Amino acid sequence: MKINSPHIPVLLEETISQLVINPSGIYVDGTLGYGGHSAEILRRLDSSGMLIGLDLNPNAISFSNSRLSAISNNYLLKLSNFKSFSKILFEENIRNIHGFFLDLGLSSPLIDNPEYGFSFQNNGPLDMQFDRNGKNSAEKYLNQVEEIELVKIIKLFGEEPNARKIANEIVQRARMKKMKTTFDLKDAICKVVPRRFQVKAMARVFQAIRIKINDELEVLSRALKLAVQFLNPGGRIAVISYHSLEDKLVKSFFRLNSVKCICPVKLPICSCNINPKLKKITSKAIIPTIENIKNNSRARSAKLRIAERL
């Protein structure tokens, strides 16, 4: 049974070949999406192995269920953010896993769906929430935020050089009740940014606000720490990131947890008693090939890092 996915998985072989090293293990895909990576994980598991897939998109869960059921029944799908994966493991009486995977990019259907408000290409509500619960939408945030805070958010999470001008324009429009849709935000950015820089500025600002709304970096940091606790020795974490903030966080986490000694070089004997938790499998990030990018243009900024539990 062949199912055509609406989303092309990024760095598929590079990820799964180094993630699934125990075919009888339990693997968590915290960003299931349309099941591209999960399907390949499932194909490599034997009858004792198990896949647990999490996603906040009901359509993705439904699609992946159909896709995975054609391969095996050794899987469990949950409508949940990956920040809750430990709770789900406890509910299923699972205390140890053999692999943990995150693909931090937004799937094409989510980006292209105006209702989510992730893209400046389509007009829609200023939502940007992964869980769509209406409690902290981008519209609510932008209509309440102080200008000084918004400048910091756009600089920190978007690395946008025109942060001050953009924040001022957004706040001014919000005061006039003109900050309700993605095109309202788009117009505010374009108003103060020269035409040749507008596309990059819009991408950066939309990214910055989305990261803030969903607390993405803090959620990622907590998930990585929990994954290390649940991983069996020899189990692996694989993370695909798409912007520098995520990649720096993953890189730093792997580095700090793989350090063997922090004693001064002059000391003849180690006295710091540090026990590293991880071993880096990728000394530097794996990036897509030209062929990968040709098949999926949104893969161009992807970086894969993998570490193993000691």
Observed structural traits:
310 residues, alpha/beta, 7-stranded mixed β-sheet, 43% helix, 14% strand
Describe the fold and architecture.
With about 300 residues, the protein is an alpha/beta fold. Helix content is about 45%, strand content about 15%. It contains 13 helices and 7 strands. α3 links the parallel β2 (about 50-55) and β3. α8 (about 165-175) packs across α9 (about 180-190).
Oligomeric status = single chain
Can you give the mean pLDDT?
A: 94
Q: What is the H-and-E element order?
A: HEHEHEHEHHHHHHHEHEHE
Q: How much of the sequence is in beta strands?
A: 5-15%
Coarse structural class:
alpha/beta
**Any idea what the radius of gyration is?**
21 Å
Percent helix range: 40-55%
Specify the number of helices: 13
Low-confidence regions: none
Distance between the termini: 39 Å
Give a short account of the largest sheet: 7 strands, mixed
User: How many strands appear in the DSSP assignment?
Assistant: 7
Q: Give the strand order of the largest sheet, numbering strands 1, 2, ... along the chain.
A: 3-2-1-4-5-7-6
Shape: globular
What's the short story on this structure?
With 310 residues, this protein is of the alpha/beta class.
Write the layout of secondary structure elements.
Layout: H1 12-19, E1 26-29, H2 36-43, E2 50-55, H3 58-69, E3 75-79, H4 85-91, E4 97-103, H5 108-112, H6 138-142, H7 147-158, H8 163-175, H9 182-192, H10 198-214, H11 216-230, E5 231-241, H12 244-256, E6 278-280, H13 290-295, E7 303-309
Parallel strand pairs: 1-2, 1-4, 2-3, 4-5
Antiparallel strand pairs: 5-7, 6-7
